[in-house]
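Thread: MmcQ/YjbR family DNA-binding protein, structure

OP (GT): Posting the sequence first so everyone is looking at the same thing. Length is 123 residues per the record. Can we get the structure tokens written out before standup tomorrow? I want them in the notebook alongside the other entries.
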Amino acid sequence: MADADDVRRLALALPHVVEIDSDGFDFRVGDKGFVWSYPERLPGRPRVIRTDIAVLYVGDEAEKQALLLGEPDLFFTTPMYDGLPLVMLRLERVGAGRLAELVTDAWRMRAPAGLAADLDAAG
């Protein structure tokens, strides 16, 4: 079972990560977001930042669909994210190892090539 503190620890352990001031968590590499708190929007209600759900960059629609179909207990999406390479992850249902893999993969897909080499160099 993971939480926002686990996301923060994993994201900040990656090279060149900046945390943006927010009501939850919001991490960038090379000025590009790769993982942040889910901004839930319900009709007729104010937006609520959900720190129990992470939005992850996944690269492309094929990977998004593979995650949604392959692990529906972990991942979901909403119409607001249609056409975007993003999935929502239920943190309370993911283990530490899997979360580390997902955060690192999101970082790799968003980091500029020159910065991505720093992760490989770090091992």
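GT: Both are above now. Quick notes for whoever picks this up: The CA atoms of residues 57 and 93 lie 18 Å apart. The chain has four helices and six strands.
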